[in-house]
Amino acid sequence: LAFWLAGRPNVPETSVLHLPQPALAVHGAVALAGAVDLRLTIDLSGYFTFAHDKHEVVSFMGGLPAEVPDRYRAGDPGELLPITAPQWLLQGTEDDQIPPRLPERWAAAGRRAGDRVTVDIIPGADHFDVVDPESAAWPRVRAALGAALA
User: Fold this and answer.
1) Whole-angstrom distance, CA of residue 76 vs CA of residue 5
2) pTM above 0.90?
């Protein structure tokens, strides 16, 4: 949701989600094992193989991208590039819920659009380690949050 909020100025004017002047300026976005690109989450997972967040994306959006394309155009951060705010994506190598290629694919698309994107893949961390202050991954999360707030 943080990445969607950062990209909200790019929501199509025809969408009910469009605001001509968003109320909140976003200065940075941090994703902790985040499904930041909803279409890419589905594409990299394959809809008929098990991937936890892929099914949640389809449920959240009310269908697949081909079924509800307007929802994805307005609600998928991947459709709202460039975001222009600096972005940090942190994910563990042992994450079994978000496709492991998603952060690098997001970074490549964001950089092509002119965005500043940092990816930190944390060895040995799983999906929940990046949100656990007691995990070995937490110092790297704090560093990214500190950079986003600077």
Assistant:
1) 10
2) no
